[in-house]
Design brief:
This protein is α/β, with parallel strands linked by helices. It contains 11 helices and 13 strands. The protein has a 7-stranded parallel beta sheet with strand order 3-2-1-4-5-6-11, with helices on both faces. Strand 5, helix 6 (153-171) and strand 6 (176-182) form a beta-alpha-beta unit. It is globular. The site of nicotinamide-adenine-dinucleotide has 28 residues, from helix 1, helix 5, strand 5 and strand 7.
């Protein structure tokens, strides 16, 4: 059992990871400013974990860019063994429009977190990175050996943090760091109690589909019908958020056990799906028709991302095993029970 600090733990991936960690018996402190989430997600995580038989969870409302908030989080339970750092901004288009905000939250926020870790003598860190650091590769699947080529400020800030962590490890012994490059997490916990609750118009395909299905939005906008892919729509490597959550539990356990860093790891299924393939699966799974329109491509998007996650399988023994049908049915279980997200 470990004492872990989870930044951004109230968010989509963070909340599912908190649940897996609590069920694994760990005790958690979440630091979140709720800029893109609600404390209700953590209340439900506690409910699902059937506290107090599982581990424990404390919640601190605060900002990773505020050293006093970080200090409160580190001292809340006396000692922190490791940090999983989810807090950040993640919308590609928004990052093109507001680059300084992305550098401030994602890079400056990570730097301040690392400094707080130094103050509190904690040197074990799992960092949320992204497959968008690879840019627009011409061959697939994408392995960790591929050259990085971040095409927008979001990916640039994530890669900048990866480099900052690499320099930190080289300059100061004792750091145990894992950089996880996620492909496209979707779905929800099968209970339908926690899930993805985006503010405003969703930037990602899955919550857009489920919001159209629940009649929150009239129709799905598909960005581009002329990509160089078999059906002309963008291809992504979608993985179930519960598989991703389990990868975090394995990564932090590995770091705490081995006391050294992990190489960069891709987390995906290795199978790319087009927008139209996902739509077809969702309609087949739910029996609902999703009205759609094709619109222009979006700033920062690429034709295809499909990852090779063999390294994570070899080192952590992890694979994204849940099916596309589970992604659809669990995502729909969440959206249909909570049409307005945590506002219910
Ligand atoms: N969802 C994806 O498709 C995806 C893919 C690759 C990488 N990632 C990365 O994974 C991480 C988690 O993503 P998510 O989908 O759960 O996003 P999310 O927006 O649901 O969660 C991020 C959480 O961080 C919090 N937060 C934001 N700024 C903060 C700040 N300054 N101080 C404290 N808390 C702050 C938000 O309130 C939210 O709870 C992010 O770093 C994201 O860049 C996400």
């Amino acid at each position: 059992m470990a004492h872990l600090l989870i930044t951004g733990g109230a968010g989509f991936i963070g909340s599912h990871t908190c649940l897996v960690l609590l069920q694994g018996g760990h005790s958690l402190v979440v630091l979140d400013n709720f800029a893109n989430s609600s404390p209700e997600s953590l209340r439900r995580v506690g409910e699902l974990a059937n506290l107090p038989t599982a581990g424990r969870i404390g919640v601190i409302e605060g900002d990773i860019r505020n050293p006093a908030d970080l200090d409160r989080a580190f001292t809340a339970t006396g000692h922190v063994d490791g940090v999983i750092h989810f807090a950040g901004l993640k919308a590609v288009g928004e990052s093109v429009q507001q680059p300084l905000r992305y550098w401030d939250v994602n890079v400056n926020g990570s730097r301040l977190l690392i400094e707080a870790m130094q103050r509190h003598d904690c040197r074990t860190l799992v960092f949320s990175s992204t497959s968008t650091v690879y840019g627009e590769p011409q061959t697939f699947p994408i392995s960790e050996a591929f050259t990085t080529n971040p095409l927008h400020p979001y990916a640039q800030t994530k890669l900048a943090v990866e480099w900052m962590l690499q320099a930190l490890e080289a300059s100061e012994p004792g750091w145990c760091i894992s950089r996880l490059r996620y492909f496209n997490p979707v779905g929800a916990h099968p209970s339908g109690r926690i899930g993805e609750d985006p503010l405003g118009i969703p930037n990602n395909l899955f919550p857009f589909i489920t919001q159209v299905a629940s009649r929150q939005r009239p129709l799905l906008r598909i960005f581009g019908a002329d990509w160089p892919t078999p059906d002309g729509t963008g291809v992504r490597d979608y993985l179930h958020v519960m598989d991703l959550a389990e990868a975090h539990a394995l990564a932090i356990a590995w770091l705490l056990q081995h006391q050294r860093s992990l190489p960069v790891l891709n987390l995906g299924t290795g199978r790319g799906l087009s927008v139209l393939e996902v739509l077809q699966a969702f309609e087949a799974c739910t029996g609902l028709a999703i009205p759609r329109e094709f619109v222009a491509r979006r700033d920062g998007d690429v034709a295809k991302l499909e990852g090779c996650a063999e390294r994570a399988a070899e080192i952590l023994g992890w694979r994204a095993n849940r099916s596309l049908e589970q992604m659809c049915s669990d995502g729909w279980a969440w959206q249909s029970a909570n049409p307005r997200g945590y506002g219910c």
